[in-house]
Specification:
CATH topology: Rossmann fold
Oligomer: single chain
Number of domains: 1
Largest sheet: 4 strands, parallel
Structural class: alpha/beta
Distance between the termini: 22 Å
CATH class: Alpha Beta
CATH architecture: 3-Layer(aba) Sandwich
Strand order of the largest sheet: 2-1-3-4
């Protein structure tokens, strides 16, 4: 085995945390990226596995959809769920390959509570591996199903950067997770 400097620690992160330009018009909280999340990853030597934006993949950057239909309604259709299943399969393949090669996937970081694709909601208080509630985003539900099918257990957490108090709690959770590894 080759000795190198990698930490073998990875977190899967939704696109808009890394690139606010991928968010729907009016939804960006930062000019470029959520620096707090990126800085924590840098501080604890945790690699970032980007999760493609399901809204962009299905509807495009401008979220083109039939008039009168919300992004959530457009994404939560058979075609939208199929797009999310495809993203989930590809992401789960990467996760499985990383795990097979002695890497640890610490968490899946989803989005704000209202995100059509990436919101993370739990039935009760979040624990290490609780099923996501139906209110979760379409991609997060599909990814959860795909990982369970493969018997891969990774905690999910929304990074709720639209609310400073919730964001503070999410960053504290993330720092505690990173510090324990």
């Amino acid at each position: 085995m080759v000795d190198d400097s990698r930490s073998h620690k990875i977190v899967a992160v939704i696109d808009c945390i890394l690139n606010q330009n991928s968010r729907d018009l009016g939804a960006a909280t930062y000019p470029a990226m959520n620096k707090s999340v990126v800085q924590l990853c840098m501080q604890y030597n945790v690699g970032i596995l980007p999760i493609p934006c399901p809204e962009m993949a299905f509807l495009g950057l401008l979220r083109n959809r039939p008039k009168g239909k919300s992004i959530k309604q457009a994404l939560d259709t058979e075609a939208g769920r199929q797009c999310c299943r495809e993203i989930s399969r590809k992401l789960a393949d990467k996760i499985q390959d990383y795990i097979k090669n002695n890497n640890q996937i610490l968490a899946v970081l989803g989005g704000n509570t209202e995100s059509p694709g990436c919101a993370v909601h739990f039935l009760n208080e979040p624990n290490e591996r609780q099923a996501l509630a139906f209110q979760s985003g379409v991609l997060m539900r599909e990814l959860d199903k795909e990982l369970k099918k493969r018997e891969i257990q990774i905690p999910f957490r929304g990074i709720r950067d639209c609310n400073p108090e919730l964001m503070k709690k999410d960053l504290e959770w993330l720092e505690k997770l990173f510090g324990s590894c």
